[in-house]
Amino acid sequence: MPPPFIQSKPPTSLSLLLNPPLSLSSLKQTHAHLLRYSPHDPTTSWLPHLLSSSAQLPHPTYTFSLYAHLLSFSLCPPRSHPLSVYPFLLPPLLKSASLLFLPILGASLHALALRLGLFAKPNIQNSILNLYSNLLFLGCARQVFDEMHQRTPPDWNSMISAYARVQDLKNAQKLFDSMPERTAVSWTAMLSAYAKCGQLSLARDRFFDKMPNRTVVSWNAMLSGYAQKGFVNEAIELFRDMVMRREVPPNETTLATVVSACSKHGDPELAEWIIGFVDQCGVKPNCFVKTAMVDMYCKCGSLEKARELFDAMTHKNSFSWNAMISGYSRNGNLCSARELFDKMPNRTVVSWNSMIAGYAQNGLWSLAIELFKEMVERARVGPDEVTMVSVISACGHLGALDLANWVRETIGTSKIRLSLKGYNSMIHMYSKCGSMEEACRVFFDEMPERDVVSYNALIAGFAQHGHGTEALELFHVMNERGIEPDSVTYIGVLTACSHAGLVQEGCSLFQSIGEPSVDHYACMVDLLGRVGRLRDAETLIKKMPVNAHAGVYGALLNACRMHRDIEIGEKVAAELFRLEPDNPGNYVLLSNMYAAARRWEDVERVRTMMRAKGIRKTQACSWVEFRGKIHQFIAGDCSHPELKEIYKVLEELMMELRRRGYVPDKSSVLRDVEEEEKEELVGTHSEKLAIAFGLIALEAGVPIRVMKNLRVCGDCHGAIKLMSKVVGREILVRDNNRFHLFKDGHCSCKDYW
Domain 214-346, what fold? Predict the structure, then answer.
């Protein structure tokens, strides 16, 4: 029986305030009521009741503040009667210590219970058991459990759930088998444990199907198990079964789980069936269910319906906004995504991530970087690894080394611990930025562990830079360390052999592949074609056990361009026009071949084909990074603020090249015009303008790094080789195929490109 000043029921006025639904604001109002109207009245003894009520809410800090207030009002009993109050105080305090994840405080409360002789009380024992179970201190929890003389079903369930959370199925099963009385909670705990371990068949057959009384929580656990492990069809079928059986009505959690599963399915008809059921089942969707429905519509491509539902929501949380923003971004509607992002009242790191990833995934890498700068410098929102992976990807595509180094510093200053995926992204970034030295440093010095993706990333970097020997050496190291190469590994090494002209090594590697894929054949065609073995490449295509795709024929067509074999080139181009009728690159390659042979009628014929099909040549552009900004150029550019100085420097440089024997290669000009006009057309290609800007902006001796979206033409390749000797500095050019390091009049590609 409680002491006199802790009554069994609160006064009527306070009882009304403590009635459900409880909220933090109602508790604070009760607290204020006590302070204002009865600070010294015996009814203030209801503060312990208030403390107990606060433990029902997810606000453990407030519970401890009430406890401090209780002590300050001297409401604890005299020292001679310590047992009269603590049986009522310890359970809510232990629960709050668990929610705050304060094991030391929890252990102190445990010690207090022992010192006061209260440990034998069932409610105290259960609270201490729950504390250690929730903190996953399984040794302590099991000791408390074993010392209990009388165990209730909640005690058994608490211990089973703790084992389930750490996926200790053996001990969980032993306890379950020993239970004198199993409840629906016990069955559900075991079901969840097996489902989380991926043993869905056992979860279904051994527990879900054999449960004597399934609750909605049981159904939700099984549905969640299927959905979280990617068994979307099974989750939807189980939900249909639930609807037909009518054992228990679905609740909001059920609907949120099923709608989320349907999102992964991406089936618009299924989505409509789910929405129709939600309308009929009588469950009023809460914010989380509606958010899941918005996400489902977005993933099914129904953006209008998603936006209609989003706009109709009276209460939107950050998840709702993020779902709609991500939906727009995934579907390429970045204007609408940004419009919502700018209107969002409280942006979380997930909101920034959604928008940054949207830009990065849709090729707007500069905007991704700019938004990231706004995030960390103006909004002062701390990034996480998800942010950094998108930003790292953007830096890699831009080839912006200075930005890449700044991003790396930001990772350090923000104390972001990269996962294996994050480190792999870093290797890709530095490889694409032209710094294999930094890529190797990340791989060999910084990564705590490496997987096949790590090796593939570095091998691909070596391939792009033409370092065939290094790629082969890393491939052998990979095998020695017991890491099984996959299809991507072989593509990387074969590409490296091709770019380095290592024909024999590439052929040997290809022979070692058990069942080469069509992509491996494409690499071999490229390898043979680059060294002029066009007939061998053509024969290989004919003998392929699988149908050749556009990549195979594209490799051969480029080889025909390099070796000026129009006869084979025309046949290959015809196949490409059939496979990729809308790809402008194939038409341009064939046009270049005709132009080099001065077959202007054929050039015009190809151009007419392009016009008839509405195909436009992709505009070439090149860019240079300077002081954290990207300076972009197109052929004959007239938009840059330093235009006059750029053209002046370029003209002086081209004059010096001519004095040293440079003769423009005008074979890539696709028009039959005067020779002087041809020279002017090739003389202002975008990479030449970018190099001229680099000479103006960068300090003497600093390497110039140029990125280009298309393949470098023959004239620019020859001119830049001579430029590197004239200006006495390295010029690194990344085109859409590989890196070219120009130094002292030579190129690292050895004219294999």
Answer: 1.25.40
